[in-house]
């Protein structure tokens, strides 16, 4: 799919795309308690992979209810699609509860490293055939305690939290700084919402038995998937309101992008789950993205107008694409000057070109290129990659006045 974008002002009101991270957590939550869904399961590819996995494990979906299984069957072959979140949560469930499983993914996910799984398998005396998919994993399970080494992803820890919640008790000792820590907090908040009892103190995540509770929920909006619309609106001088975002927590996470834009001069504020963005004079920005790595793709496009410096970028190499290279390639094509030193990337505005970009199997590359293209004009090839997280991405832009031609 080729998407041709003409310069156009992005302005108006949309509902936020559904949070992929929260939707995946809600679905895995049905392993622990019955869940009543107030709306249909979001249709992005990663959420579908999570849905298929929980059904494979024994969750029963009837009408608007997800019914927890009497027992979880992990001796299966799972397909995680392009979702590393799903693949790593599954692998940690197998390590925690025991099982003989195969986890596979699509061509993009097969290229991504699962080094952390090798380390965790060693610690838990489990057998694993390698650090890339398809992975064959055999584990006898773990009792109630694990010390975590340095890992490339927080997603393994999320999976361990679900596993211990299912077992009824467990302690996860965090020996070193956990990357993407905001996602651990997101998991803890969600599991406590569905009736579990999890606390984090003194570098330990203590998981206690989940109370039997019928939990009812809708699927809240995603801050970073929304932020591409916000950035294109402020780059093109628009006023945009994005509805149905979840209540922002006080730790640094995806939701902090509202404040980050406000801190550089944008009229950016949250009003009861509605994000209001109005273009004002922009200032330079510097952000450490290690706790919320996906934010890099949302902030980089501002580098066509102001200087953007992003620290804590090393792990961007192992996402759907090498995002350090992707950011450099895309921003240089649009005319900015990019330099990379150690764990930091710097983007300086220069001229603004129309550019032709390939999605490179990375949904956020297409989204970052699009957010600039409404200012400069642009073409995005293989643009169907947005289906990983936001299949209605191009429809929403058309609703906001975007001039788009899809071929
Ligand atoms: O737990 C999650 O939902 C996610 C965690 C992050 O990955 P890492 O923990 O590997 O950084 C993030 O990049 C991903 O998009 C979603
Ligand atoms: C990296 C991402 O997701 P995952 O790690 O689940 O593939 C993403 O959504 O940008």
From TrEMBL:
SUPFAM superfamilies: EPT/RTPC-like. GO terms for molecular function: 3-phosphoshikimate 1-carboxyvinyltransferase activity. Keywords: Amino-acid biosynthesis, Aromatic amino acid biosynthesis, Transferase. InterPro entries: Enolpyruvate_Tfrase_dom (IPR001986), Enolpyruvate_Tfrase_sf (IPR036968), EPSP_synthase (IPR006264), EPSP_synthase_CS (IPR023193), RNA3'P_cycl/enolpyr_Trfase_a/b (IPR013792). It catalyses: 3-phosphoshikimate + phosphoenolpyruvate = 5-O-(1-carboxyvinyl)-3-phosphoshikimate + phosphate. Residues 7-395 form the Enolpyruvate transferase domain. It comes from the Archaea. It is an enzyme of class 2 (transferase). This is 3-phosphoshikimate 1-carboxyvinyltransferase. Pfam families: EPSP_synthase. One of its GO terms (biological process) is aromatic amino acid family biosynthetic process. Belongs to the EPSP synthase family. Gene3D superfamilies: Enolpyruvate transferase domain. Its EC number is 2.5.1.19. Pathway: Metabolic intermediate biosynthesis; chorismate biosynthesis; chorismate from D-erythrose 4-phosphate and phosphoenolpyruvate: step 6/7.
